[in-house]
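Sequence, please.
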């Protein structure tokens, strides 16, 4: 009798605990889903509040103001360049004239860049002469003699980035003495890769190279070097 009573008691306790586990699991699921729903509602409300808040509006106003200033600056540069001011023409001849760090603001079209590049080159700016030479060189249909002309004008003004290019032009024309001369100029100022390029000129005697080195030293005394 006592054993039967114990078995009934155990069964009753087991059934009670099972119902509690099922009930607790169901309540936990409801709480999880309710928490997720509250999180979604809060995110939506916060999103729309943030879009219409003052900090966001201020940021948009600052962005619009910056764009307006850039357009105004570009307009002023173009007016100054039209009046023949060299510094303005040089600025417009460069890619991204209103560059801020790595950000390119208000880029000009390639035609506009080339136009101002040529205007500045015609006024004698060595950097723009070099950039104009690169422009002619990079366009397959362009006359390469124009590129060579502007490179040489830039190099003669002491713009060291043009020296290797002029040396290459003379080397292609099999004028090895002048090629060695311009390569040697680049070597004299420590231009990267210049010694290796000059070593490719193997068509001159030691006496010819020595005479060219003397010519390089004299040239450097009378020509200021431009490094940009």
């Amino acid at each position: 009798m006592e054993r039967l009573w114990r078995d009934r008691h155990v069964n009753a306790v087991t059934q009670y605990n099972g119902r509690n586990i099922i009930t607790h699991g169901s309540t936990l699921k409801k709480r999880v889903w309710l928490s997720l729903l509250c999180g979604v509602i809060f995110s939506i409300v916060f999103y729309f509040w943030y879009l219409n808040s003052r900090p966001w509006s201020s940021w948009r106003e600052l962005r619009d103001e910056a764009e307006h200033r850039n357009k105004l600056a570009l307009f002023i540069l173009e007016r100054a360049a039209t009046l023949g001011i060299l510094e303005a023409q040089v600025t417009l001849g460069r890619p991204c004239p209103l560059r801020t760090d790595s950000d390119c603001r208000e880029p000009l079209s390639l035609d506009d860049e080339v136009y101002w590049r040529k205007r500045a080159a015609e006024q004698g700016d060595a950097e723009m002469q070099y950039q104009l030479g690169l422009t002619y060189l990079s366009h397959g249909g362009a006359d390469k003699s124009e590129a060579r002309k502007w490179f040489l004008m830039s190099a003669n003004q002491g713009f060291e980035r043009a020296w290797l290019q002029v040396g290459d032009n003379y080397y292609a024309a099999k004028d090895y003495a002048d090629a060695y001369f311009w390569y040697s100029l680049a070597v004299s100022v420590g231009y990267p890769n210049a010694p290796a390029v000059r070593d490719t000129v193997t068509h001159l005697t030691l006496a010819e190279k020595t005479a060219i080195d003397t010519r390089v030293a004299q040239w450097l005394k009378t020509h200021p070097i431009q490094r940009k």
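The chain has ten helices and no strands.
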